[in-house]
Specification:
With 157 residues, the chain is of the alpha+beta class. 38% of the residues lie in helices and 38% in strands. The protein has a single domain, classed as Roll (Bifunctional nuclease domain), CATH 3.10.690.10.
């Protein structure tokens, strides 16, 4: 039996002293997952469509999936235990005989978010996790305000 889910998008990726804060959410609520610097940078590059000189790890994995006739169908952040998020990467694979199968893999939420962002696949959060996380909408709004004010100041100088 599948759990009810809520669709979210990556709203922002903000560098922190220990990595990056990835803000996920929708119009109702926003929450944060902390990721390491390299994955945060990859998510940011995928969001911006940045061209890279050589494939990075997530690019390599996407190339392998494509070569095997698979793609990321969706990502589900399905659990939160003692401050650690858990996620499932749902792949849709089709072989040369057009036989299809769905493959579900346990993966770090950070990698799932990066892969979903790269391949424009939807990101979901289980309703259970959604109701447990703290709403960080106001924190994100203030950070975006401060960022736009500092950009205006930079332009004036």
């Amino acid at each position: 039996m599948s759990k009810p889910v809520v669709e979210v998008q990556v709203r922002a990726v903000i560098p922190t002293s220990g990595g990056c804060a990835v803000f996920l959410g929708n119009e109702e609520k926003v929450f944060v997952i902390y990721v390491d610097q390299s994955v945060g940078a990859a998510i940011t590059m995928f969001m911006r469509g940045t061209q890279k000189e050589r494939p990075l790890t997530h690019d390599l994995l996407a190339h392998i999936l494509r070569a095997l006739g698979a793609r990321v169908e969706r990502v589900i952040i399905n659990d939160l235990k003692r401050g650690t998020y858990f996620a499932r990467l749902i792949l849709n694979a089709e072989n040369e005989l057009q036989q299809k199968k769905i493959v579900e893999i346990d993966a770090r939420p950070s990698d799932c978010i990066a892969m979903a962002t790269q391949q424009t696949a939807p990101i979901y959060v289980s309703r259970e996790v959604w109701e447990e996380v703290e709403d960080m909408s106001e924190v994100l709004r203030k950070m975006e305000e401060e960022s736009s004010q500092s950009e205006e100041t930079d332009e004036e100088e």
